């Protein structure tokens, strides 16, 4: 049993395999957070509430109710009644008042999880959910706090339902999904900020007084900010220190915030960003807030990472490709950009098929009059002047080579120079009387409208039905601006951001339902929407438009902090690299890409004979290593971002019989001897062969693997480790 309610102590206790989470009732009315940390069995936790310390609790000191409220460790804090810290919930009544008093109204324990209608969510058997009910009788609101736990995993997954049981509508102005109150431990805040082409770089900073956050209100989770935050104790590294982490299972606007008040209480919250959010909740209706995954680790970042990896592999990603060997693809984008025809694509496929590449992906430029990025988004019909014989001919020619075929879409966008916009100008998100702001000569389609969702899906469906297509790359290359919908009344315009995201989710759900064997890869200007919400629909996401192997070290390290390696779209590209101009050895480009889903982003017909031989070797390596990389336990051994010299990580299979060590020497230095890198995750009682040399597991784990310094920058190696006994 994962949940316990102690009737005498009025304490709720949630237990996972290694962690505990506790709440307590005050005066049988207010729900307080009291503990999150290492697993405990006792519910003797009321002393943590300090009920006998000024300003006391309302039942004993009504003259200081405000003092109690402003320092109480509320489980789900609200706006307007005296808590001056940032809230998790704000509602406005029809009379214009912004205040609520959510009081305890009961609980329920259910097998499984409640469905989150229209939203991505964790799933699976051997799961229990604690539901705690709060009510505001004056407003007629019922708020359900959901806490779900899966057997064998230490994550606690939280979501919130808000039901209007009253007689009048209310306006929800903030509905966050998770809040945790803690005593300060000199926390540092860890986030994953970035930009286009340098997404998800790990950042740590001290938590000072006041509010600090990572947030996006660009309409998507964004490359600038990632829906992840962790609070860590001083000195936390991979194997030591306390970690409190949150990750949002959502792809739209978000806020992840920590606030430290004058009493050194720390409030950590996460949910939909309240900027631009206002949801009209009619009587009888329910609003569902997306899930937040909460993870605690007492043994450093590595344990946190493993908890996320296992949860997402076992209870989030649904694709049949999760445990399949995915085809090695070649994408024509950096090979040709818009300058291609069917002959050029077939030439690329012919050469690629000889070298072990298994799928050709046709990127942007195949539809409408799309010979540059100024037109035709929304006109999802094949340009048969460019592709003679149309899509069926091209696909069949590729299939004759023994290869599969994939195609690129950007379904959320529309160009002003497109037949679709000329026919339906009101289908673009816009504010009447204002010019629509362009980005990349694009507007955003109003996916809050069902007729727009249906029209876009019908066009995609017709293309996919016309030929044997195995893969779709789903792109999204701009942020949302000019927020206005012709289909929503004035008092519902604040629902656009969230309704837009629900429209995207509906499109992707329909796609994978109608085409269950399709491999879907999400992309958003590279890794601009790499989040758990997208992983619910696609098993992999394009990690970044920056394919430079050295730049990718930091990007892939930050991504792997939370997400399995099998989710990271990673390709070998040409040099000088198209994003930054760096030249790196072909072997290193391959070794770095092998840590992800693996493919090529170049004109293979222009490679030298030596490079083509390396492609043959790399494709063989992919098939040899893929299952270990995709399913193995990930250990971060060294970070180039920290040491400015080299990068190193390893993966180990479940029975510790096989492992791979990935090593990149970024910069070479004079008069430097061999490095000894201690490994982790091996069985210390076993004997292992490492690239043909024999070691015992205890030596490799505690003394380390010797790695010689190479001549030249950007050198790399992969060490194969196999148990002999």
Short description:
With about 725 residues, the protein is an alpha+beta fold. The protein has 14 helices and 38 strands.
Helix share of residues? 10-25%
Q: How large is the count of helical segments?
A: 14
What is the quaternary state of this protein? Answer: single chain
Radius of gyration: 27 Å
Characteristics of this structure?
alpha+beta, globular, nine-stranded antiparallel sheet, nine-stranded parallel sheet, 725 residues
Overview of the structural elements:
This protein is of the alpha+beta class and 725 residues long. The protein is 20% helix and 30% strand. It contains 14 helices and 38 strands. The strands form seven sheets. It has a nine-stranded antiparallel beta sheet, covered by helices on one side. The chain has a nine-stranded parallel beta sheet with strand order 28-27-26-25-22-21-20-30-29. Strands 5, 10, 13, 16, 17 and 18 form a six-stranded antiparallel beta sheet that branches. Strand 2 and strand 3 form a beta hairpin. Helix 7 (450-465) packs parallel to helix 8 (496-514) and helix 10 (549-560) packs parallel to helix 11 (586-593). It is globular. The two termini are 39 Å apart. The mean pLDDT is 96.
């Amino acid at each position: 049993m994962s949940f316990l309610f102690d009737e005498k102590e009025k304490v709720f206790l949630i237990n996972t395999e290694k962690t505990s989470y506790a709440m307590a009732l005050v005066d049988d009315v207010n729900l307080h957070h009291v503990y999150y940390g290492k697993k405990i069995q006792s519910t003797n936790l009321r002393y943590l509430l300090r009920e006998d310390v000024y300003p006391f609790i309302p039942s004993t000191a009504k003259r200081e109710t405000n003092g109690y409220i402003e320092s109480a460790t509320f489980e789900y804090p609200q706006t307007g009644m005296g808590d001056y810290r940032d809230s998790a919930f704000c509602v406005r009544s029809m009379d214009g008042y912004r205040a609520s008093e959510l009081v305890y109204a009961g609980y329920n324990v259910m097998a499984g999880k409640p469905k989150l209608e229209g939203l991505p969510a964790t799933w699976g058997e051997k799961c229990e959910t604690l539901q705690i009910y709060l009510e505001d009788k004056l407003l007629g609101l019922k708020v359900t706090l959901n806490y779900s736990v899966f057997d064998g995993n230490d994550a606690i997954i939280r979501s919130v339902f808000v039901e209007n049981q009253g007689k009048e509508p209310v306006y929800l102005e903030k509905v966050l999904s998770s809040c945790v109150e803690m005593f300060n431990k000199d926390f540092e805040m860890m986030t994953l900020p970035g930009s286009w082409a340098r997404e998800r770089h790990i950042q740590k900073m001290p938590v000072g007084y006041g509010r600090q956050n990572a947030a996006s209100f660009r309409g998507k989770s964004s490359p600038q900010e990632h829906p992840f935050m962790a609070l860590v104790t001083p000195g936390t590294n991979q194997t030591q220190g306390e970690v409190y982490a949150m990750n949002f299972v959502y792809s739209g606007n978000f806020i992840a915030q920590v606030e430290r008040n004058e009493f050194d209480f720390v409030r950590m919250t996460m949910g939909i960003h309240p900027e631009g959010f206002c949801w009209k909740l009619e009587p009888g209706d329910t609003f569902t807030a997306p899930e937040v995954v909460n993870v605690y680790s007492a043994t450093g970042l590595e344990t946190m990472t493993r908890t996320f990896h296992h949860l997402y592999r076992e209870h989030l990603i649904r694709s049949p490709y999760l445990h399949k060997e995915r085809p090695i693809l070649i994408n024509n984008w950096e090979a040709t950009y818009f300058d291609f025809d069917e002959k050029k694509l077939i030439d690329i496929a012919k050469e690629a098929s000889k070298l072990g590449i298994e799928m050709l992906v046709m990127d942007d430029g195949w539809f409408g009059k799309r010979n540059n990025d100024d037109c035709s988004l929304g006109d999802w019909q094949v340009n048969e002047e460019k592709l003679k014989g149309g899509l069926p001919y091209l696909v069949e020619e590729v299939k004759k080579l023994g290869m599969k075929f994939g195609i690129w879409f950007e379904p959320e966008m529309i160009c002003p120079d497109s037949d679709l916009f000329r026919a339906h100008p009101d289908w673009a998100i816009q504010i009447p009387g204002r010019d629509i702001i362009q980005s990349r000569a694009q507007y955003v389609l109003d996916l809050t409208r069902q007729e727009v969702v249906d029209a876009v899906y019908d066009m995609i469906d017709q293309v996919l039905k016309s030929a044997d297509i195995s893969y779709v790359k789903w792109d999204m290359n701009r942020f949302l601006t000019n927020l206005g919908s012709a289909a929503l009344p004035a008092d519902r315009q604040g629902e656009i951001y969230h309704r837009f995201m629900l429209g995207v989710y509906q499109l992707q759900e329909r796609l994978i339902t109608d085409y269950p064997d399709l491999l879907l890869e999400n992309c958003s200007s590279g890794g601009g929407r790499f989040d758990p919400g997208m992983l619910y629909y696609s098993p992999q996401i394009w990690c970044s438009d920056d394919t430079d192997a050295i730049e990718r070290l930091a990007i892939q390290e930050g991504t792997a902090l939370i997400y399995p390696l099998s989710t990271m779209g990673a390709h070998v590209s040409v040099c000088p690299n198209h994003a930054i101009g760096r030249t790196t050895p072909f072997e290193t480009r391959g070794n770095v890409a092998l840590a992800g889903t693996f493919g090529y982003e170049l004109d293979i017909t222009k490679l030298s004979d030596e490079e083509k031989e390396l492609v043959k070797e790399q494709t063989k390596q992919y098939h040899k290593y893929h299952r270990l990389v995709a399913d193995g336990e990930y250990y971060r051994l060294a970070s180039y971002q920290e040491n400015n010299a080299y990068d190193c990580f390893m993966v180990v299979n479940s029975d510790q019989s096989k492992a791979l060590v990935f090593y990149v020497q970024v910069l070479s230095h004079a008069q430097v001897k061999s490095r000894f890198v201690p490994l982790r995750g091996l069985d210390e009682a076993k004997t292992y062969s490492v690239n043909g040399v024999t070691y015992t597991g205890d030596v490799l784990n505690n003394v380390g693997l010797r790695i010689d310094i190479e001549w030249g920058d950007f050198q790399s190696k992969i060490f194969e480790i196999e148990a002999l006994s």
